[in-house]
Amino acid sequence: MKKVIAGGIFLFCGVILYLGIYIPASKISSTLGGWSTPPGRLGTALSETGGTMPLIYAVIMMAAGACLLLWGCFLDDILRKKDRNQVEASQQSSIPN
């Protein structure tokens, strides 16, 4: 349960950080006079506002949050199924033929 809560918090904070960087950069990109082709208009706006590294941190936080969330949700189910299979196997081996 702790992993699910931590994953949800990381995911939520990553989304908020991403939006907090992306929205102002997109507003600035519409007013740019010139930009270079490889990073493009949005990449140039991100580099001018200093949002490149926070954007990377936001993506890392979202990925870590999603991983923690999935790990916390499905690990308990996998362990329960494993325990149930072990109990069934021990019950079948104890039944005389």
If you had to describe this structure to a student in words, what would you say it looks like?
The protein is mainly alpha-helical. It has three helices and no strands. The protein has helices spanning 2-29, 40-49, 52-94. The protein starts with a helix and ends with a helix.
Key features of this structure:
97 residues; mainly alpha
Summary, kept brief:
This protein has 97 residues and is an all-alpha fold. The chain has helices at 2-29, 40-49, 52-94. The longest helix is centred in the last third of the chain and has 43 residues, at 52-94.
What topology emerges from the helices and strands here?
Layout: H1 2-29, H2 40-49, H3 52-94
Helix pairs in contact: 1-2, 1-3
N/C terminus separation? 43 Å
Put simply, the count of helices is 3
Q: Determine the structural class based on helices, strands and strand pairing.
A: mainly alpha
Largest beta sheet, briefly? Answer: none
Average the pLDDT over all residues and give the rounded result. 85
Radius of gyration based on Cα positions: 24 Å
Instruction: Indicate the low-confidence ranges by residue numbers.
Output: none
- Which H/E pattern describes the elements? HHH
> Proportion of β residues?
under 5%
The amount of helix comes to over 70%
Number of strands: 0
Shape: rod-shaped
